[in-house]
């Protein structure tokens, strides 16, 4: 059972209504996470702005989706695992093997795997990475800017993971569950 209510986009008012209209125009629907975030237009708008900015990052959408899966699995967020598995396959055209492996920080491309490993390390160490961790990601070919983008992707996904785990958001994508810890 959900713990925070998802707003009906047809009954929303003010800034949340405006944001919902933009989301619906772009996606054709307003996903439950965004409907729930809409209880605070500041939360929804902050999420949308960071997400939009990161969609233009040097990492690309595929790596961004794979990072999202690594972080969601680490945080046991079933909503985000479901959403990013669907988005990764249907919109980013990522094969299902790569999607499954990303949940565990793995990828057949060494550079991408280094990004996933670093993302998982960030989550597991609560951001307190070591000099060696940063040296390893840079040695994999990532610039200082790209390292910052990985950190930002992790932060965005921690926001959505924590939000959905708190709200117990109804999953409106084909359901994917985190491995048992």
UniProtKB/TrEMBL annotation:
Pfam family membership, one: CMD
UniProt GO MF annotations: peroxiredoxin activity
Superkingdom of the organism of origin: Bacteria
InterPro entries hit by this protein: AhpD-like, AhpD_core, CMD-like
Domain Carboxymuconolactone decarboxylase-like: from-to ranges: 44-84
Protein name in the entry: Carboxymuconolactone decarboxylase family protein
């Amino acid at each position: 059972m959900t713990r925070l209510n998802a707003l009906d986009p047809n009954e929303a008012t003010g800034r949340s209504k405006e944001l919902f209209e933009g989301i619906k125009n772009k996606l054709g629907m307003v996903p439950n996470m965004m409907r729930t975030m809409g209880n605070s237009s500041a939360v929804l708008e902050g999420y949308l702005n960071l997400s939009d900015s990161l969609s233009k990052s040097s990492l690309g959408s595929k790596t961004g989706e794979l990072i999202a899966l690594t972080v969601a699995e680490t945080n046991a967020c079933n909503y985000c695992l479901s959403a990013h598995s669907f988005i990764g396959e249907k919109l980013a055209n990522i094969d299902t093997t790569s999607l499954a492996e990303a949940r565990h920080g793995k990828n057949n491309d060494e550079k991408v795997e280094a990004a996933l490993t670093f993302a998982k390390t960030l989550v597991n160490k609560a951001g307190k990475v070591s000099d060696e961790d940063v040296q390893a990601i840079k040695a994999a070919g990532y610039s200082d800017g790209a390292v910052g983008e990985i950190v930002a992707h992790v932060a965005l996904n921690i926001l959505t993971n924590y939000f959905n785990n708190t709200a117990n958001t109804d999953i409106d994508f084909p359901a994917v569950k985190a491995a048992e810890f």
